[in-house]
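Re-run requested by the PI after the first attempt was lost when the workstation crashed. Everything re-entered from the original request form. Ligand of interest: glutamic acid.
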Amino acid sequence: MTNDPTCVRVRFAPSPTGMLHLGGARTAIYNWAFARSQGGTFILRIEDTDPERSTEENTQIILRAMRWLGLDWDEGPEVGGASGPYFQTERASTYAAALEELKAKGAAYPCFCTKERLDACRAEAECEQGGYAGYDGLCRSVSADEAAARISAGEPHVWRLRVPEGHGPIEFDDAVYGHMSFPADVMDDLILVRSDGSPTYNFAVVCDDANMGITHVIRGDDHLSNTPRQILIYEALGMEVPTFAHLPMILGPDGKKLSKRHGATNVEDYRDRGFVSDAMVNYLALLGWSLDGETTVISRDVLASEFSLDRISKKDAVFDEEKLAWLDGVYIREMDAGKWLDVAAPWLAYAHHLGDAAPAGASVASSASKDEQKARLEALIAPWEEVAPESWQGLLADVADRRAWHARIHPLIVERQTTFNELPDKLAYLFWGPRVVLDEKSVSKVLLKEGGRADEALRICREVLADESIPWEAEPLQEACRAKGEAAEIKPKLLFQPLRVAICGNQVSPPLFESIELMPREDVLARIDAVVAKVLS
Ligand code: GLU
């Protein structure tokens, strides 16, 4: 396949040795956005040649994370394509064919050096000035006949690239870093195929990129030192060298390379913590690229039409979770009820699960301090994993079946949330039915408040809420309560706060009467009765 620069073909090539981390996700986003903006093809290739560390489970996790991010691939696992297969383990015959070609050209030779010899060379060189400069080329001079005889005698060997003598510097124009030049005489004869017949990373990646007609290799700059070696392989194969674009690193706030030490680094951790995937894509896209140097909210569509390699920065980017959280809030507030509900569904199902788990009648739960609250939120990570699969399906089905009712929750909460995993905790009260779980602090501060008139307030409100002649809607209910409270000379705050605690369990909650409107009358009355019986009598 020849490279037609007018027809962009890019690939994201993760190794399934772990989950999709943030750096990998950014690389995937840039490849995807570049393909989309150029009307090109985005290929997903799984580099599973490391048998010890690659797992099918990790592959599935990576595909799932890609789908969650909305990065659809045109060729790759599950979708197929003309340049497949898309798993390196299924491409062994292509590497074997490439090796045969190099052998035929005299560009690859077998190396019989033992590990002991190579280790000794390295140790010796490291004691000398200048250090180890790579393989010394001993087996270059083994004659073809001798090599053939040793191979047929079963002597273990690897295959190395014969770097042409007198090769000038290896140069290329990186789309991010500009002109790069590496002296060829420091490149040793790199291994292409190991003694077990498996291809090395550099060899497999070049064979694949060449055979798949990749025009642009966009990847992390941790691969920059591999690039001159890969260029030597392209040259040996007589294949066109693609354009390279190496991406700057992503650092943690402390200026060190982003790692587990900085907290969550897996994409799915962010999904499980309730972040919106559009916000995630937007935020990761900005770690090293900018639209115009100032716009921060960039939709997927704009990214897919405006992305360009020339606006990728050379400077390392800093991952700042606070900025991500801010952007997440922006995306949440922009959602209409339908879109919100699509994302909120599993979290509402979990709120429902928590609601079902509330004890009968009125119960008191100890107030959580800020830290405890945070810990509780963290414990809600991937909440669906702790619900039995069959009941989980039932809860999700309920959200889908009663979409109109669930969509009415949207205006109650949308201004108050920054991530979706806050919803179960904040909304469980909507799903308690006739039960109520009272926050301990709210009980003492509101229901048992000195000089308060909680029992009277609840009695007044109960009368209104039991009156079937008043429409079951927030405004008329609230107005009727207010009028009755005024007649009894109870200030609105002293009237409504006890009701809020009795219905929502907490002195802080989403709008009270809008919540009441969403619940059946008998549940609302039952909660008031349970609170009066438990706390006020
Ligand atoms: N499989 C390599 C990695 O996960 C990527 C190789 C490349 O992009 O050239 O680091």
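Saved to the shared folder this time. The chain is about 45% helix and 10% strand.
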